[in-house]
């Protein structure tokens, strides 16, 4: 594929660099499916070590997947952003073996230092697992060390 | 210590049973510091595998710790509750080696099938790392298989 | 227009009945633009009495508009639902004279007693003013006294 | 009472100035009970025009009361702050004639441009009606025109 949009190419480079440093995302086996400006889609397969006391996916694992997509999307312009606040609604319990996909999309940004992102998490059947919404704050440093 | 309050003794039994099944909490090294009716305090030491792309504790790890305390507190009456929704505000970045303590306290419950809990997360110096607030929903089964 | 879908016709009847009793929505001049099953769109014009100490629309007014759309959407099946929790993100300041439109859409529901709704609020130019997300809980009574 | 703390005296002046411009808070009859640095307590009596379609206090009214306390608390240092995001949990339905008191307390602030506040709303019997949590962002202008 020929990447024609420089902003999307930068987003892919930033997401890859973020994941390379993100030990937690790596330990959960999170992979990047797509990255564009203000957008990221990541995925993960639920293993037996991701389960909580009710024998379903730990809410913290679902949150971590969504938060990772959020981080990649809000750092896509090579300007470092950190999370200020996030909310998550749990709609369906995930199970061992499920393939979870988190899709992050910028809803509002570009003015001031803050941005608003939505992240939907679904399983392999497209059923909604969780809905995440986050607020980020831009700090004054780049994502890439050598951009 | 002689446990004089039966409700608190039940809470301790439920929290221990929850943690025994909670593979994710175990894999993060989460331990129970205290459990009482509608209350739980859990702790964890930040390791290098809990770090995100900004070299600070992954927001998902902090959330998982808080969510675990929430789960133990809202399941303390041997009535299974699941999380409907949670919000988290991040106030300070945690670092490798930090000892994080999450304290969950019931704010409202006892009527209907829903409950509201606050969980504060602090580091070893008592500095606030995050504030979590969750809503749970009681399902009709016990926490303990053989209570 | 010939209403062919009975569920949408019921939704319209329920929304109209809710608004007739909703003194607060009336006092803000909120009107129903459209109501369907699990969906409602309401609108309001910002007057000088809806302004806060920064000379912009009071966040409480924007919330009230969104919450009203949420209420109409989650009561659209003639089963009374009450709000458990709601979150709102403010993206742009509204001004006196603005026409604000709140669009509520069910995101998840139908199982159990709880539902999740998104409400987007925009101004007359289509610019996003706020994003609202709510969790509701079904109580055991109808919306309509004489359905 | 002799006001000995200049920061608290400034907070009182700022809250009074905010309320004087806040047409929405005035129209609900909101009054200031106490204002200090990073803190505000406001109150309001529920009238028949504040009722929703379920014959209880409109969630938007409760939110407006809490949001007003939040605004007074986060503007208490004569530095204008605007709300980025807020969450509210509803614990008990308010009724006509209830006296509602909202108490806002800074939970974290002072570094960067953002702050985190909790606002608890209770009725005249001290029963919790709602719990609010807000994130604010400091803009570069004073609250007082002539400080």
Could you say how many structural domains of chain A there are in total?
A: 1
**Which structural category fits the helices and strands of chain A?**
alpha+beta
Q: Give the C-level CATH assignment of chain A.
A: Alpha Beta
Low-confidence parts of chain A lasting 5 or more residues at pLDDT below 50?
Answer: none
Gap from first CA to last CA of chain A: 22 Å
Q: Residue-averaged pLDDT of chain A, rounded?
A: 94
The share of residues in helices of chain A is 25-40%
CATH-defined fold name of chain A: Thiol Ester Dehydrase, Chain A
Which oligomerization state do the chains in this entry correspond to?
Answer: homotetramer
Counting DSSP H or I runs of 4 or more residues, the number of helices of chain A is: 3
Biggest sheet character of chain A = 6 strands, antiparallel
CATH architecture of chain A: Roll
The strand count of chain A comes to 6
Query: What share of residues are in beta strands of chain A?
Result: 35-45%
Radius of gyration of chain A: 15 Å
The largest interface is: A-B, 41 and 41 residues
The H-level CATH homologous superfamily of chain A, spelled out, is: Hotdog Thioesterase
What is the general shape of chain A? globular
Main-sheet strand order of chain A equals 1-2-4-5-6-3
SSE series of chain A:
HHEEHEEEE
């Amino acid at each position: 594929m020929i990447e024609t949009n420089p902003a999307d190419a930068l987003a892919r480079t930033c997401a890859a660099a973020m994941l390379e440093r993100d030990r937690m995302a790596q330990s959960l086996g999170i992979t990047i499916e797509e990255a564009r400006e203000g957008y990221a889609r990541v995925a993960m397969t639920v293993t037996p070590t991701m389960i909580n006391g009710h024998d379903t996916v730990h809410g913290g694992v679902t949150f971590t997947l969504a938060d990772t997509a959020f981080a990649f999307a809000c750092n896509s312009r090579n300007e470092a952003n950190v999370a200020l606040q996030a909310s998550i609604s749990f709609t369906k319990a995930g199970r061992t073996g499920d393939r979870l996909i988190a899709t992050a999309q910028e809803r509002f940004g570009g003015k001031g230092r803050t941005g608003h992102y939505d992240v939907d998490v679904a399983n392999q059947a497209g059923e909604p697992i969780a809905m995440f919404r986050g607020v980020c704050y831009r700090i004054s440093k780049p994502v890439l060390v050598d951009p």
